[in-house]
Amino acid sequence: MVRLNRIYTRTGDDGSTGLVDGSRAAKDSPRLIAIGEVDELNSAIGIAVAALAGAADSHGALLQSVQNDLFDLGADLATPGADFTPSEMVLRIVPEQVARLERAIDALNADLAPLRSFILPGGVPAAAHVHLARAIARRAERAVITAGRSAPVNPAAQTYLNRLSDLLFVLARAINAGGAGDILWVPGGQREG
Fold first, then answer.
1. 172 alpha-carbon distance from chain centroid
2. How far is residue 37's CA from residue 42's CA, in Å, rounded to a whole number?
3. Parallel, antiparallel, or unpaired for β 24-26 and 16-18?
4. HSE (CB half, 13 Å, CA atoms) of 22?
5. Phi and psi (nearest 5°) for 25?
6. CB 154 within 8 A of CB 38
7. Helix, strand, coil share (%) of the chain residues, nearest 5
């Protein structure tokens, strides 16, 4: 269990932060940028949950489970090394977490009309928040890929973010009246006045 008695430690005043193994990394290192992107994604999902009236909504409950996974993912990224085996003391994203997202995507997508066009991010406020979270998930995925160029990164973490952006896309459509409220892209539709 995490226990924080004091929020500030002053140890990061030099521009570094502590990792799970006790080592320190620059706050602008690729690893820390990726962790920050995942944190921003988690915050954006929190806004979507609030727009859905919280966990009482089934979509909100799904997103809160994702938020917990994203804390695991942040801990995974903050744990240096090339051994991605989880243990009681080491959090790692595992294939079952990705499979859970895939099951949710399949269940949501089963009730959606097939896409006839690309859709614009928007619709009802909750769907717009989910679309924003989807875009942030893509940025977080790119940051994890970049971090993996300089240090080993759990492949399941990268896969999780890729699948999460798919889930958020399908979920935004589900929130938009099962896709009936999607705003369709009209290619070149604004070229003429």
1. 14
2. 9
3. antiparallel
4. 0
5. -135, 150
6. no
7. 60, 5, 35
Alpha helices in 19-116 (DSSP H): 30-51, 58-77, 95-109
Superfamily of 23-82+91-112+120-182 according to CATH = Cobalamin adenosyltransferase-like (1.20.1200.10)
Cβ atoms of 172 and 164 within 8 Å: the answer is no
Q: Considering only CA atoms, which of 118, 98, 88, 90 is closest in space to residue 179?
A: 118
pTM of the model: 0.92
| Rounded CA separation 139/134 (Å) | 9
Residues 6+ apart with CB under 8 A from 102: 163
58-97 pLDDT, tens digit each: 999 999 999 999 999 999 999 999 999 999 889 999 999 9
Alpha carbon 10 to its chain centroid, in Å, reads 29
Would you place residue 191 in the very low, low, confident or very high pLDDT band (cuts 50, 70, 90)?
Answer: confident
81: which 2 tokens?
A: 């090394």
Write the CB contacts of 56 (distance below 8 Å, at least 6 apart in sequence).
none
> Residue ranges per domain, the chain?
23-82+91-112+120-182
Q: Which two tokens stand for residue 24?
A: 């320190």
The continuous run of DSSP H or E covering 191 comes out as: none
